[in-house]
Structures are given as C-alpha cells and as structure tokens.
Design goal:
Layout (H helix, E strand, L loop, with lengths): L4 E4 L8 H10 L4 E4 L17 H10 L8 E3 L12 H20 L4 E4 L2 E2 L5 H18 L5 E5 L7 E2 L3 H9 L7 E6 H7 L6 H11 L5 E6 L1 E2 L10 E2 L8 H9 L8 E3 L10 H10 L6 H4 L2
Parallel strand pairs: 1-2, 1-12, 2-3, 3-4, 4-6, 6-8, 8-9, 9-12
Antiparallel strand pairs: 5-7, 10-11
The structure holds fe (iii) ion (FE) (2 copies) and zinc ion.
The site of one fe (iii) ion has 4 residues, from loops.
C-alpha cells in the first residue's frame, strides 16, 4: 500500500477542485483536504461549478484515490452551543447541506470539530452535540462519514479526551456514520504524550476502537504538552519533533489512513512540498524553512 499523504489545499476559482488537485500533485501529495468554501464562514458556491469530473480524471491519472480525500467543515459550526442554541440549529442545517456537497464531489469523509461549551460546561455541550448530530443523521440521505476531530482544549472546546469522543459515538442513533480524526498537535496540546505512539494507539483502541479512526492530521505544536493552545507549527520546528511525527506517518497500523498536514505557511509560501518530502523520506533537513524563502 502506498503512503497516503497530503495537506490542506484551497479551492480557487475558476478551477476549484482541479486547482486543489494540481496544487497537491505539485507538492508531491497523493491525497488532500479541502474546505468546500471559506473555513471561517458557511457561504458556499454550488458544487456544479467546481470542475468535479475533470478533477476526478486528474486524480485517477495521479493515483489519488477518491476515498482518501478529506473535506473539513467550517470551524464556526458549534453544535455544542446551548447558550445560543440558534448557533447549533444553524450548524445542523449547514451540515445537512454540506454532507450532500461532499457526496456530490465524490468524497466520503467530513471532518468536524465537535464544538465548545461556551460556559455551559462540557457535559451539557456533549449532550447537545450528540442530539444535534442525531438531527443531522435523521434528515441526511448520504453515506458520508463525519469524522469528529480530537481537540486541543483551547477556550471551551470539548472532544479533548478520547472518552468524550466515545461518549458522542455511544450516544449516536447512527454510530456507523461517525469516525474520528486524530490531530497530533491537538492531542499533544490536550496532554497526551505523542512521543509514545504505541501508548496512544492502545488507549485509542481501548476507548474508541481503531476501526473508527479515519484520518490523521500531522502537525507539530508551538507549545509544550498540555498547553491547550492549538497553535500548529511546521514539521520539525515544534515541541513534538520530527521523529514522533514520522512514526505517525509510517506506523503500519495507520497505513491505510490519509495523513494531512495543516502546518502554517511561511511568509506567504507553502511549506507542504518540503514537509511532505521529508516525512516520506524520514529525513529532516535542518533549517529547511530558510531554504524555501
Ligand atoms: Fe480541524
Ligand atoms: Fe486538525
Ligand atoms: Zn488545530
């Protein structure tokens, strides 16, 4: 099996999905993650204009399997907001439409940040999220998986511990529609020891089940373990370090999963071609950020 590695890439008019695929190919990627529009809002253009068929052909030619491509929901969605329930209601409506968009683009996994309690406490938020997800699945007719992302614990985020993700799966009317996105920066910021990949996978398997894992976000972190900051760092420049991240990329139990980089750009320049090359080859180039300027 090849290694499936890529990064977040933008849909840019007028070529949209073709642009995203071309960018990924240029970076040496064979998978990718997209937002169907701006990540910070829910304004979306119709998928009919996004050059889907042509993009699929290009993907086929370059060995990019459709089922490894990831879509990320906008991060303004908060199904856990009970202080302002309207926010959660809007989130439900948006998600129902987004799942249809994902399916019409030929993809099958949508990453979602579980939500934040905005003062009401985690338990209230988790109950709200599971109820709202049930509303989504009651209406949605697709078979797209929602991959709940493990969060860093910034602000009032929930979904920080594996147990919280487990709660959401356990309380779902459609647990078969839920999966998990593991983010290395987030779990590190949440307090997990990312140096101990075997320990992490064991605990994930015991609490959630490794079959639920659908995608890995590969990011270094600007902050020490447990900092709950969620500030991504370039590969090899953060508190996690190159070796630990390489172990996630190449672990045999994770071989079938897409690995997606969401590391910061460097002065308007994309780091992904370099980062992907280093992770593939397991060779860190010291000071690589200087070489792309
Ligand atoms: Fe995310
Ligand atoms: Fe992430
Ligand atoms: Zn993050």
């Amino acid at each position: 099996m090849p290694l499936f590695i890529g990064s977040h890439v933008d849909l840019v008019a007028p070529d949209y999905l073709i642009h995203a695929v071309e960018t990924s190919i240029k970076n040496g990627a064979n998978t990718m993650m997209i937002y169907t529009g701006a990540p910070q809002n829910s304004i979306r253009k119709p998928t009919e204009i996004m050059k889907i068929q042509e993009a699929h052909q290009l993907m086929k030619m370059h060995g990019m399997p459709l089922d490894k491509i990831i879509v990320h929901a906008p991060y303004i969605i908060n199904l856990g907001n009970t202080i302002n329930p309207e926010t959660a209601t809007i989130g439900v409506t948006f998600l129902i439409r987004e799942l249809t968009r994902v399916q019409s683009m030929g993809f099958s996994t949508l990453v979602l940040h579980p939500g934040a309690h905005v003062g009401a406490g985690s338990e209230v938020a988790l109950a709200s999220i599971s109820e709202r997800l049930n509303q989504v699945f009651a209406e949605d007719k697709t078979n797209v998986t929602i991959a709940l992302e493990t969060m860093a614990g910034k602000g009032s985020e929930v979904g920080i511990r594996f147990e919280e993700i487990r709660y959401l799966i356990d309380h779902s009317d459609h647990p078969e529609r839920l999966g998990v996105c593991l983010d290395t920066c987030h779990i590190h910021d949440a307090g997990y020891d990312v140096q101990d990949i075997e320990g992490i996978l064991k605990s994930f398997d015991q609490i959630i089940g490794l079959d639920k894992l659908k995608v890995i976000h590969i990011n270094d972190s600007k902050n020490p373990k447990g900092a709950k900051k969620d500030r991504h760092e370039n590969i090899g420049y953060g508190a996690i370090g190159f070796e630990a991240l390489t172990r996630f990329v190449h672990h045999p139990q994770l071989a079938h999963l897409p690995k997606i980089l969401e590391t910061p750009w460097i002065d308007e320049l994309t780091p992904y071609a370099k980062e992907i090359a280093m992770l593939k080859s397991k060779q860190l180039i010291q000071g690589w950020r200087e070489t792309i300027k």
